[in-house]
From TrEMBL:
Gene3D superfamilies: Nitrogenase molybdenum iron protein domain (3.40.50.1980). Belongs to the bacterial solute-binding protein 8 family. InterPro entries: ABC_Transporter_SBP, ABC_transptr_periplasmic_BD. PANTHER family: MOLYBDATE-BINDING PROTEIN MOLA, VITAMIN B12-BINDING PROTEIN. This is Vitamin B12-binding protein. Residues 1-266 form the Fe/B12 periplasmic-binding domain. It holds the Pfam family Peripla_BP_2.
Amino acid sequence: MHLLQVPDEVIVGVSDTAQNVPFLGLKEKPCVGKWTEPNVEKIAELKPEAVLTYGKYPSKETRDKIESLGIKVIGIDFYYAEKYDQDLQIVAQIFSKKERAEEFLQWKNKNMSLLTERLAKVKPEEKIKVLCLWTYYFKKGIYKTFAPGSSYDQIIKLAGGINLAGELNNLPESPEVSSEWVISKDPGAIVMVYSSDILGYTTNDLQDAIRLKDEIGKNPVLGKTAAVSKGKVYFLNISGLGRFVENLYMAKWFYPQLFQDLNPEQVLKEYFEKWVGTPYKGKWAYPEP
């Protein structure tokens, strides 16, 4: 909303997640519960004209209840790279912000075109094999990765990598894989994502990320991989509309020789300060490429 310069007064309620994002300034907005299970009664009290949800959440049953009140439910994601532009254009149309959206997408796609041009030089046999893991579950001893068509499957491919879980068809978007499977695939790079407890807007130092990287090195499974032996273990936690910058980080990590002049953090800083209109703070990636 901030990116499209939609006035805050247009927003009558938010999920608990949105309410707690420090740079959005939505702390005082009424909370309608979790984005997965919103409180339909609370939504009804607020009398919105429309509710913006994720594409797949909440459930169809909950959506139907909301729409039965005469409230339009509009599903958008922003975390699927292939639908990112389309999703933004849908929201821009709702709020009559088409010109602003076009300006932003032109800037965003100029940065992304750099990847397309340079990654064309990478031969298929030279592409790095990537294991992308959910940080939260790793800490619980579970290896949860990202199947074909998932958000990180798309991001890895756009960054010129091969998603090792891209062969896991007919499974949930974030399937659990076994220790044996991980060892057999021997990833050349490991990317830990959804690392909100160690990276983000309020993170002042990288000590937690450094400690977790050390834990991964000692892990009886991941410690045996080429990714660990070659020091190719990375951490990311960029969400929302700025998530496209994860493509830039991954591309520079995977192929540093092709992107010596690329500064992903500078692009992220410009996203916050020029487009979202908020000061750039925090630590979002480790290590900085």
